[in-house]
Design brief:
two-stranded antiparallel ribbon, mainly alpha, IPNS-like_sf, Gig2-like, Protein of uncharacterized function (DUF1479), 4% strand
């Protein structure tokens, strides 16, 4: 990958990785997942939208399944292909400086998440607007005040959103009344097991606004940058 491509990923904050898994393997995992649901009588056990975190979904079979540890999911998470992609993305960060390593780019923690299946003709928007744990409360912590020090001090041009310094020094367990998360979690991804037409599917990307603008929105007399 060229330096220009790496710079584009950093500027946009996202990337599409094609051919992550062989097509045959992805389809086999998808088939095995359906068999796993049937073998464990998912339709008989699942109680409906109120049985999961996503209570706004209305369907006998949800679009986002509260399934975390199926063989298909675990095989994908622990695959060499996944490890290679995670290592590449981790190394986009400035993870070591002045003799201090903020995290090991070649070691990642397995993150268990749900599966999503959208039947043809689905009109539900799925997930509602939300912020993940850490999105708000970490701003209160001394470590993150150092992360965004240049932003707070008005020196925005000096802020590097890909500098990992202090991002791993958070301790949310001292903050009351919040969902706890103690990991450095960046660039959450979605692996697609089956194909779909361009312009459809569960994930979508907006057009690149170009320049330093954020979708043409910027406060007066000040240019904002970040991710």
């Amino acid at each position: 990958m060229s330096d220009e491509q790496r710079a584009a990923i950093k500027r946009r904050g996202c990337a599409v990785i094609k051919g992550h898994f062989p097509r045959e393997q992805a389809l086999a995992w998808d088939t095995a997942m359906l068999e796993y649901l049937d073998r464990n009588h998912f339709d008989d056990v699942y109680k409906g939208p109120g049985d999961s975190f996503f209570g706004s979904l209305e369907a006998s079979r949800p679009e986002i399944y509260p399934i975390y540890w199926s063989p298909s999911q675990m095989q994908a998470r622990q695959s060499d292909e996944m490890a290679a992609v995670q290592s590449f993305l981790n190394r986009l960060w400035r993870f070591e400086q002045n003799g201090k390593r903020w995290f090991d780019p070649d070691v990642s923690v397995i993150y268990p998440d749900r599966i999503r299946r959208r039947p043809p003709g689905t009109t539900s928007k799925g997930l509602g607007a939300h912020t993940d744990s850490g999105a708000l409360e970490r701003w209160l912590l001394p470590a993150y005040q150092q992360v965004f020090a240049n932003v707070f001090n008005g020196n925005i041009d000096a802020y590097d959103p890909w500098d990992a310094a202090h991002r791993t020094e958070v301790e949310e367990y001292t903050v009351d009344n919040t969902t706890k998360c103690s990991v450095f979690r960046h660039l959450p991804g979605l692996d697609r097991a089956v194909g779909h037409d361009p312009g459809s599917g569960a994930a979508a990307r907006g057009a690149d606004p170009g320049g330093d603008g954020l979708c043409a929105a910027a406060p007066p007399a000040r240019r904002c940058a970040g991710r």
